[in-house]
Design brief:
Elements: E1 2-6, H1 11-22, E2 28-31, H2 36-46, E3 53-56, E4 59-62, H3 66-73
Parallel strand pairs: 1-2
Antiparallel strand pairs: 1-3, 3-4
């Protein structure tokens, strides 16, 4: 299960979600600007307020780190 903690105004969040869609990767998009409980969960997992934060089966990636996300999901370009 992949969770993406994001906000609608974050350009990196948009790029990250487009990257997942291009590779047909299912994810749950969580808008932390609207969901206070999810925002608290994100801060607890990542230790910061910045978005995007990606939770890939418990592995936390802060920001759109394409290389690390591709490694974790075994995506080859």
């Amino acid at each position: 299960m992949i969770k993406v903690f994001s906000t609608p105004t974050c350009p990196y969040c948009v790029t990250l979600k487009e990257f997942f869609k291009e590779h047909n990767i299912e994810f749950e998009d969580i808008d932390v600007s609207q969901d206070e409980k999810a925002r608290d969960e994100m801060v607890e997992k990542s230790g910061q307020m910045g978005v995007p934060v990606v939770d890939i089966n418990g592995e936390i990636v802060v920001g759109f780190d394409k290389e690390k996300i591709s490694q974790l999901l075994k995506i080859t370009e």
